[in-house]
Design a protein that fits this description.
Blueprint lengths: L7 E5 L4 H12 L3 E6 L2 H15 L3 E5 L5 H13 L4 E6 L14 H29 L2 E6 L12 H22 L3 E6 L8 H4 L6 H6 L3 H14 L3 E2 L3 H12 L2 H11 L3
Parallel strand pairs: 1-2, 1-4, 2-3, 4-5, 5-6, 6-7
Family: Belongs to the short-chain dehydrogenases/reductases (SDR) family.
Pfam families: adh_short
Keywords: Oxidoreductase
Length: 261
Amino acid sequence: MQSSENSWVLITGASSGFGREFAQQYAAEGRSLILVARRLNELEMLAEELRARYAVDVLVQQADLSSIDVIIDLHRDLHDRNIVVDILINNAGYGLQGAFLDEPLESSLAMIDLDIASLTAITRLFAEDMRARRKGHILMVASLLSYQGVKNFAVYSAAKAYVLRFSDALHRELKGDGVVVTALCPGMSDTGFASNAKQKITPLLRRVMMQPQPVVQAGIRALQAGRMSVVPGFGNKAISVLTWATPRRFHQGLMEHVMGV
């Protein structure tokens, strides 16, 4: 995956957390970047930092990806500018912790719009371009919670289960067309997601919390290797194995304990 004059990495949700770390690591490889998020100031500051440190091309696109029309406009604009997206990092996402019936309906629907509908739309548009070129890479940021329904994360875990299964299917569908699709399933990570999701951080969660750098590194390596999916971290891998090896009442109860619910 060497850099070329017109080969770009598009990272959604790039202003913080995993998205920011993806930008740092790809910039260190000398890749040209398209950073997409709602927060323009954060994007511009990150872009300036990456240009100065790594001497790479960085485009900033302020966009609310919960709107399908915005995604279509973004794709059209890049196409009109002859910008080729060789790597798509589907990182933008939204989550909340809380009992399903205690959360406003609009919050749950907003999660579905961004985590499912918008991810599907942006994948459809850029994957079609990749298939036409018979070359491309797509990384879907799912979650360890995608392996099971978790109390007080009902909509989020279900949405991330969609991301994982969608990614699994596309991995097989597009492999013969030269397009690699990989799912990254991180556990608890120090990205700021917990505070945004109003999530309670238990002492156990704090002990197993990973930093963004090794999580993103695992995702990039898995994508480069053409893997179907990756779960970073030994403890997270153990939980994913337990999900398949134990009855639902056991592993769901275990996850409730781990997540402090």
